[in-house]
TrEMBL record:
The keyword Protein biosynthesis applies. Signal peptide: none annotated. This is phenylalanine--tRNA ligase. It comes from Turnix velox. Residues 462-555 form the FDX-ACB domain. Pfam families: BMT5-like, FDX-ACB.
Amino acid sequence: GAEVLFSVDCTKLKDYFLPEGRKFDCIIFNFPHCGRKAGVVKNRELLASFFHSSAEVLAEEGEIHVALCNGQGGTGADKPRREWHNSWQIVAVAAGAGFILSEVHPFKAETIQGYKCTGYRSQDKSFSIEGALNHIFTRSSPLPNFKPVTCEAELESKKVSFHVPRVLVDKMKRGFLGLNSTHPVRTVKEELAAGLSQEFPLQNIDCCLSLLHQGHLHRVCPSNIFWVTLSPPSTEMSNGLENAVDFGRDTEEKSWGNVQEGCHFSKQFCLRPSLLPDAQALMQQGAFSPGTIYVLSGPVFRRCLISPYSLPVFHEGVFVCPVKRGTENSCIQMLVNSIKTSVDSLHQTVSGFKVNIKLVEAASFETSELDDFAAFESQLSEIQYFICKDAPGSCGKGSCVGVIRTELISSEVVVVFASLNLDLLTMSICGIPDWRMLWTSDTRFLHQFPGGELRLFKSFSLYPPSYVHDVSFWLPDGEQFDEVAFHTIAREVSGETVVSVQLIDTFQQPQTGRKSLCYRLTFQSCDRALSSREVAETQQQFRKEISRVLRVTLR
């Protein structure tokens, strides 16, 4: 019942199949080769043309299977792995046509009835398929093309609208913690709350916590804050991000100052970097019951350097417990024990492994070892304890998931505040290696957590290609270089595809004292196809932006 066509050009598949309106669920190409002694470059070109051709006749949910001899693909699945320049670079080639590598497994000829390995040097001779691999590709979600938007928020019981910082456009109002959400971050938050409810009376704070804070926050570095510009509210503005409102880049840059007059518009506002100020304000009002845990949760935002554990946005859970003065230490121990029990239970259920959660006194904690600590900089001098995971010795990078501090609010009442990074906990429990995956729009992510059930995450984009570009520039005379702004521009322009920014060289002219910096940027996407052409275009745009915004002189 099969139809067989001969002399089909794999680089022009639509010429053979589109007239009948066919869309294939699976396209299989076993051991592609240009023939004879064709080198790696020609075979890459063949694969590139094949992938582009396949994209035109493949169903939306379809797969492309490509079998290659051991070492040809150039991925980490090859044993041994060839040097990248000497391989067919199959993941990078496929990315150029919008495909990601979703599975790799050994090629087993015996499972294909009637299959014969032939064609060695274009002859009727077999070739070695020992260690051969079958690569399964699927379509990637397209790289986002974010438009500037304006968002509404509650502020002092009034609705105001503000321009969303470009780097956060796809991360506002995602509703991960909403009642109908099946996102794993919500499940982790609910499990922690359920564990605490067995030890304390528990109350969720359902009041609307504003996304905005007014003015400068105590002990928060201004360069780590997303300042926003308020604009007069519009009746046509939606609460979500469905309606994009164009505004120039100049407006975004003016958000450091005051650009509006009247009502709230002459004041400075920022996106909240933490929920702790909200929790403190709540306790200062005095409407609380001693011994009760009050739970606040939501996304928080801050500008930070690019690193694996520095998150410009994450979900914070704040657990607040007012207690009688003198009993705060026992309350802290009960809090940590409950958190430890819940996290241990989740780890055992999901992966079978036990994680070490422990309380570390602030006095003995080496904060210089952390690159995920910017979320708690505002309370650094007031913290009593750090909550750490997987810390056999001292805490290392990525191990701090929360902090505990206390505050005396009356002669008899002390409030214990426990702040947790729910995103880092979720990544640890579910084995999610990249924080960006939590924010992916690819439906394959949430499909792995049906009904919010926590499971071990399986990546649907294997061995994603990475690309390295350098940029060198002269600093403007008399101005201090803002490295956080430099990293933020990299995030914005690349759509969070820059995974590493390294300072690799500095130079100062002896005669003039003029200083030059050279940075190395590594681009890689965890969930989407990223081609070398797209990265080259992004790099050019990045060069223009740093020259314009930071006033550096490109070399």
